[in-house]
Amino acid sequence: MREGFFVEILKKKIRMMFEKCSVVTQVTLDEDSNVPDSQPDVERIIQKSAVVKVEDIRTSTDRVSITGALQVKVLYLADTTEHQLQRLNMTLPFAETQMLEGCSGEEGVHVQWDIEDVTVKLINSRKLSVRALLVFTSALKEAREATAAVEVLGVPELSVQQRTLELLQPVTQKRDVLRVKEELSVPSNKPDIADILWGNLELRGTDIRIKEGAFDVRGELFVFVLYEGEDEGKSRQWMETALPFQMRVECELCSAEQIAQIGVKLAESSVEVGADEDGERRRIMLEAVLNLDIKLYQEEQVSIVEDVYTPVRELVPVREEQTCESLLMKNTSRIRSTERIRLDSRQPRILQICSSQGAVRIDDTKMTEKGIRVEGAVLVNTLYVTADDLIPYAVMEGAVPFSQIIEAEGITENCRYDIHTELEQLSVNMTDSEEIEVKSSVSLSAFVVRVRREACIVEIEEREQDLKKLQEIPGIVGYVVQPEDTLWKIARTYYTTPDRICSLNQIKETDLQPGMGLILLKTVNGGD
Questions:
Q1: Mean of the pLDDT values across residues 110-137?
Q2: 175-179: long-range contacts (C-beta < 8 A, 24 or more apart)?
Q3: Distance between CA atoms of 211 and 463, rounded to whole angstroms?
Q4: Coil, helix or strand for 469?
Q5: Which strands, in side-by-side order, build the sheet including 127-153?
Q6: Per-residue pLDDT at 471 exceeds 90
Q7: CA dist 465 → 112, 115, 306, 316, 457 (Å)
Q8: Over pLDDT 90: what percentage of the chain?
Q9: pTM
Q10: Are 494 and 309 in contact (CB under 8 A)?
Q11: Could you tell me if 247 and 178 are in contact, meaning their C-beta atoms sit under 8 angstroms apart?
């Protein structure tokens, strides 16, 4: 019997990102706010908006502490003879502590937040009630490495079965901030700006292009500004436009062949008055702060060792189950919807539309045989000029529902998916003084990953052969191929190798057919 030999195994590292745990909490803010003494009484609330500003995130053992404020702004009609428009800013601080098991430091902790609902009500002419529901999601993610044998060396007469794994391996996961600054000039037929009454920025139509060492972010900032003019009558003016932008973000690990999953979200915005070259207040300075959630992956096909065999020694593979991921699909679909919305009977009639804002809300997602069913709505907020001189402006709210199946052939319960939504286009037109027609275009970007458990060889144990079984096998055998046979199976049974069978019978492995006759020679101690 041959003496023992040294088995050398070359291994491939498989890197995956796992969500170790996550927690979702809701924070209710309920606060009354007084109108500053410098501002007139409130007759009617016209418009509101809110944004979460997170100031600090601290992590400690099993805890995540989040502090910040909800910044609310309100456009209201003053209780004066002139019925002025006024803007009121309010700040509602919050502090939330979440229990996140396993958390010990900032590394691997991802925090997201959203505004579920905001209501602003008039208590009296000097006091407003603000109620908001915030949702915070914290997740602890960690990188894990698994191994799988890809080559075996140092074994004589070795036969190896290989199989291919399709892998989606993370390259990097991080967050970044992008600041977009633009300027807008007041048209020559409009007066200078005395005061900005209402300013709003929306992010639409973003597109990501991966480059070597960087990626480009493209999109549009949809801008609406309502201001009081410096003319004699202090007229109310508004401007609405879309400003395209393109900016490059440096990313050392980026390459063109990678799979990118990059989320872009408008976190903060500012609309301020600026002076032109003549010192006149005819410029509007815009800034948008975009939060980037960057995930880069590399697709790879790896040939791993499925089984090993040598006729001169008994080899016993040691297998461990490893979790592997592969990309099932990544695509973007678009939903175009049209809906007519009528005014509430208590609201003033529409004279002219000023501006419309939209936000996409996902109500439900569900896996089906054909893919992922997504149901939701575009929430529409339209500011308009009324036909009532006592209430010159009002807001109309409504929703455009949608339902879409994102095709994902092969999706199962073992898959995980992310869906990113974005409002690409929004068009609102009057049909009459009591009705508007809303047309919207929503993009749904789906990223579906197949998660599976694979038994991978990590070690190979060497054992003495079963001499009794070896002696029972004749030195030379005439054999007729059966329907379920493979060269690998025949070689293992008769202590030879697939290469020796092919050489002796002058065939190729693909020539093997049921009913074929073969001559088999037992290989022992490296000889025939």
A1: 95
A2: 175/110, 175/291, 175/292, 175/293, 175/294, 176/249, 176/292, 176/294, 177/267, 177/289, 177/290, 177/291, 177/292, 178/217, 178/247, 178/249, 178/264, 178/289, 178/290, 178/292, 179/287, 179/288, 179/289, 179/290
A3: 52
A4: helix
A5: 8-34, 127-153, 109-124
A6: no
A7: 59, 68, 21, 11, 21
A8: 77
A9: 0.85
A10: no
A11: yes
What are 343's two structure tokens?
């005014």
DSSP 208-273: EEEETTEEEEEEEEEEEEEEEESSTT--EEEEEEEEEEEEEEE-TT--TTSEEEEEEEEEEEEEEE
Mean pLDDT, residues 312-336: 91
Query: Which tokens go with 85?
Result: 């428009």
Residue 440: Cβ-neighbour burial (10 angstroms; 0-12, 13-18, 19+): buried
Cβ 286 vs Cβ 201: under 8 Å: yes
Distance CA 444, CA 360 (A): 10
Question: CA–CA separation, 27 vs 115, rounded Å?
Answer: 10
112 close to 137: Cβ distance less than 8 angstroms: yes
pLDDT of residue 261: 93
What residue type is assigned to position 131 of the chain?
Answer: R
pLDDT band at 323 (very low <50, low <70, confident <90, very high): confident
Q: How far apart are CA 441 and CA 220, in angstroms?
A: 14
The residues facing 244 across adjacent strands are 220
**Average pLDDT over the chain, rounded to an integer:** 91
Q: Where are the alpha helices (DSSP H) in 177-217?
A: none
**Contacting residues for 147 by C-beta, under 8 A, at least 6 apart:** 11, 12, 13, 14, 322, 456, 458
- What's the pLDDT score for residue 7? 84
- Determine the 3-state secondary structure of 493 from DSSP: helix
Sign of CA dihedral 303, 306, 310, 313: positive
Query: Mean pLDDT over residues 441-447, rounded?
Result: 94
- C-alpha span between 120 and 383 (Å, rounded): 17
**Sequence letter at residue 298:** Q
Q: How far apart are CA 397 and CA 359, in angstroms?
A: 12
CB proximity list for 210: less than 8 A, separation 6 or greater: 254, 255, 256, 258, 260
Q: Indicate whether 528 pLDDT > 50.
A: no
Residue 5 has pLDDT above 70, yes or no: no
* Both structure tokens of 16: 């995956």
Q: Which pLDDT value is given to residue 519?
A: 94
Angle at 132 between CA 128 and CA 136, to 5 degrees: 155
Please report the pLDDT score of residue 421 as a whole number. 93
Which position has the higher pLDDT, 390 or 449?
A: 449
pLDDT average, residue stretch 396-400: 95
> Of 69, 45, 29, whose CA–CA distance to 127 is shortest?
45
